[in-house]
Amino acid sequence: MSRTSLARDRPVPVRPAVDVRARRRTAAHRLRTAAIYAALLAGGVVMIAPFLWMIVTSLKTRAEVFGTSPLELPSGAHFDNYQRMWEALPFGLFYLNSLKLAFLATAGQLISCSMAAFAFAVLDFRGKRILFALLLSTLIIPFQIVLVPNFVLYRLLPHPLSASGNWIGTQEPLWVWAFLGGAFGTFLLRQFYLTIPHELADAARVDGATPWQIYRHIYVPLAKPALATLAIFTFMWNWNDLLDPLIYLRDLPTYTVTVGLAFFKGQFIGKWPEMMAGALVSLAPMIILFVVAQRQFVRGITLTGIKG
Amino acid sequence: MTARAAPTSSGQARRRSPLAAESRWAWLFLAPTLIGLAILSAGPIIAAFAISLTKWDLLTAPKFVGLDNFAALLADHRFQTAIRNTVFYTVTSVPIGLVIGLGLALALNQRLRGIAWIRTAYFLPVVTSTVAISLVWSWIYSPDSGPLNAVLGFIGLPPQKWITDPFWAMPSIVAMSVWQGLGTTVIIFLAGLQAIPQEYLDAASVDGAGAWARFRNVTLPLLTPSIFFTGILALIDSFQVFDQIYVLARPGRPSDATVTLVYTIYENGFQNFKMGYAAAAAWILFLIVAVLTIVYFRLQNRWVHYQ
């Protein structure tokens, strides 16, 4: 709009007018940048504040938590909260349980999903489309619908080491499923496999390679970035999961960190410093994973829209 | 496939055999997935419906009761409240999250120094467990010693009881969930914004469009696919809210203020062992989500613009 009006504005020479406009624009631009910075920083503080409160509170004494303002800093670093939290419940064991289950689930998903994805992306067989559609349809169905039938199924499966004689109360229902495929992982990896030129597989076939060799020596090595993305998300979901461990785990020594923390909250009402220490310790692996693999996280969410 | 295999094989029989072998391999690769589909996902969806038609406490044999569970659920006050609370959670948390997320993505989509650090701050809650986050927020919302009331007191506002106050309980849960979910929304919107060709925006500027006009007529229409995508995910997800309810505001028996759909499934199935009742509740959840998804998809061509 200003360009045309300036052109019509005869008495004013064009050159200086443009300069004035440019200068005005940089001033406005700077103001805008400053405003965006201020807004983003304020928002960033809101995002970070709960984490800071977590840290600050975990270092306070109980007297400080209830006696002074929550916005005040602790009188010193009272690390004994961490020790008390660690001793109140077997958190070391919870940690090992969570690590074990998250690793097993991740391994299972990597193996079973990458195999299924290979069949869908590279091999030819009858009923491929219908099967793939069926698998994908399980993605949009709320998983809570299978909670009851799965519980019934695991209750039928015998278990030699379990007090109940079946899988209820054991950790098995929390990882065995991972070895039996999954719609999300299969879809993610299939999409990636499709970007690998099929000439590679064809050449290997001509040389007499079996599908297993093509999978093992061509597709798996080339799909490392996608496998890493799947691994990170599977690990995160299982580390953070609450509902399934809550349903299946019965005894304290089998608890995961999430169930342990929820139990802790119910048991030790008002013990904020210890609770914050526990929450912080439970977050540590995910924060480290996020810092190390932020790029994979962001790519994974953009590709699939999945939630943390 | 057959065409590619043709040059190496001559006869009809020989052409078919590699394909048959490949098909056998395919089923081998798919074996774990097929077992999983049959016994853990697709099969159980049908089983859940069968169970929902029974009265079953797991100790005695299931008794067929037809649609009694569904009728009982629809008359159950706690279940009605659960639906109301879940709908409240959805209609507040989804739009608020989308609007704030869009604003943030626009602000974060600038080439500014230090922007990567600020972005990380927004993503951090996404990777942390809802359980740990709920613990911190239960401290923030704590009525007697919590930071939120302290901040309010600082500005001169009266303290509130938040989670234990029937009026504030659900809004408090919504606020925490929006805070936690922002990172995901921002990431998807940022990707959408970065996919918008700069030439379109430049062309609009040349035509004299101001910042608002460029946003309204170029950026926003081109971003509608991302908004649609984020919206459906947030919608489905919000109907499944559970973790924060369980940790932050475990609904007591007299108080229904925070009871949600998935919480009632958990409560009926795995605390009271009313399997048929819980399965019926799960089917109702499934039907609600399915209907909403279909409606949402049907409405998409009214406002979503694909390039």
Write the layout of secondary structure elements.
The complex is a heterodimer of chains A (308) and B (307).
Chain A: H1 2-8, H2 14-58, H3 62-67, H4 80-88, H5 91-121, H6 128-137, H7 147-156, H8 183-194, H9 198-206, H10 211-222, H11 224-240, H12 243-248, H13 257-267, H14 272-292, H15 294-304
Helix pairs in contact in A: 2-14, 4-14, 5-8, 5-11, 11-15, 13-14
Chain B: H1 2-5, H2 12-52, E1 54-55, E2 63-64, H3 68-75, H4 77-108, H5 115-127, H6 130-140, H7 147-155, H8 169-194, H9 198-206, H10 211-238, H11 243-248, H12 261-271, H13 275-298, H14 300-303
Helix pairs in contact in B: 2-13, 3-13, 4-8, 4-10, 5-8, 8-10, 9-10, 12-13
Question: How would you sum up this structure, described in words?
Answer:
Chain A has 2 domains: 2-58; 80-304, MetI-like (MetI-like fold). Helices cover 70% and strands 0% of the residues of chain A. Chain A is built from 15 helices and no strands. Chain A has helices spanning 2-8, 14-58, 62-67, 80-88, 91-121, 128-137, 147-156, 183-194, 198-206, 211-222, 224-240, 243-248, 257-267, 272-292, 294-304. The radius of gyration of chain A is 28 Å and the shape is flat. Residues 1-18 of chain A have low confidence and may be disordered. Chain B has 307 residues and is mainly alpha-helical. Helices cover 74% and strands 1% of the residues of chain B. Chain B contains 14 helices and 2 strands, in the order ααββαααααααααααα. Chain B has helices at 2-5, 12-52, 68-75, 77-108, 115-127, 130-140, 147-155, 169-194, 198-206, 211-238, 243-248, 261-271, 275-298, 300-303, and strands at residues 54-55, 63-64. In chain B, strands 1-2 form a two-stranded antiparallel ribbon. In chain B, a hairpin with a 7-residue loop joins strand 1 (54-55) and strand 2 (63-64). In chain B, helix 4 (77-108) runs antiparallel to helix 10, helix 5 (115-127) packs across helix 8 and helix 9 (198-206) packs antiparallel against helix 10 (211-238). Chain B is globular.
